[in-house]
Amino acid sequence: MLQRLAYSSKAIKKLLADYTDNPEFDFSIGVLIRPVILDSLIGFNLLAILKTCLAQNLEHDLTIEKINIFCNGILSDGLMQTLKYFNQLESYGLIASDDLRDMYNQFSVAYSDFLEQPEGKNTMPRAKYRIDSTANNQFRKLAVDPELKPMGHTLYELYNIYSKYDHFGFLFFEVYNYERDIKEKRMSAAISLFVNHCANLYDMLQRVTPKDQFIEAKFKSSKEYLADKNS
Q1: Which residues pair with 116 in a beta bridge?
Q2: How far is 116 from 101, CA to CA, in rounded Å?
Q3: What is the 3-state secondary structure (H, E, C) of the chain?
Q4: Separation between Cα atoms, residue 68 and residue 126, nearest integer Å
Q5: pTM here?
Q6: Which of 99, 115, 147, 192 lies 20 to 30 Å (CA to CA) from residue 186?
């Protein structure tokens, strides 16, 4: 996630440098912002799990186990979604049944920590870790956490706006044609979210890998930026 955040941030920085003379860059910036919003949603749901573990004074190993179940569930779901897409292609006659079965087997071998074939070779794999990873469920979990509810609200508002950038339709033109100052305010809110997302990731890393000076320094600098921005 840190790598994805860094890549998006670098690209947005380039676009912002020319944004004043090219306001149409708002579209490309919006497309880059959306995946970071979804990554942030995952990150703050993970924080909610970590907070619960700490509140319950769970042992370190048990906390790591719960974190791994969530993370592996997210990764497993991505693999299963890809296989479902190829199932559809096969049902439309766009790929051969033999190629689909080969894909089942290849995925099961390449991602054996996440997938299994309980019905044997050449059959649709099943995720070893199954969680409800839908955006709706993750928003709901933040909404019921009093501490994380404000962040969940911010994420939902930004997600609702920037999801329109990914899809052709009336609402894209409606949100894209807002007044320039409104668009710039939501861009600013999204960029602040980037820093919150970064701070959250480093916060969780330093909690589970204490005494790592690099992680501690990054967490400290992101926290200081947020404190200065909110003062």
Answers
A1: 126
A2: 14
A3: CHHHHHHHHHHHHHHHHCCCCCCCHHHHHHHHHHHHHHHHHHHHHHHHHHHHHHHCCCCHHHHHHHHHHHHHHHHHHHHHHHHHHHHHHHHCCCCCHHHHHHHHHHHHHHCCCCEECCCCCCCCCEECCCCCCCHHHHHHHHHCCCCCHHHHHHHHHHHHHHHHHHCCCHHHHHHHCCCHHHHHHHHHHHHHHHHHHHHHHHHHHHHHCCCCHHHHHHHHHHHHHHHHHHC
A4: 18
A5: 0.90
A6: 147
Beta-carbon contacts of residue 30 (< 8 Å; ≥ 6 apart): 161, 162, 165, 176
Residue with tokens 């054996």: 112
Q: Which two tokens stand for residue 19?
A: 């944004």
- Dihedral of the CA atoms 103, 105, 110, 112 (nearest 10)? 130
Q: In whole angstroms, give the CA distance from residue 68 to residue 29.
A: 32
For the stretch 205-224, pLDDT in tens is 887 777 788 888 888 888 88
Q: What is the pLDDT of residues 24-69, one digit of tens each?
A: 999 999 999 999 999 999 999 999 999 999 899 999 899 989 999 9
Question: Cα–Cα distance between 19 and 27 in angstroms, integer?
Answer: 11
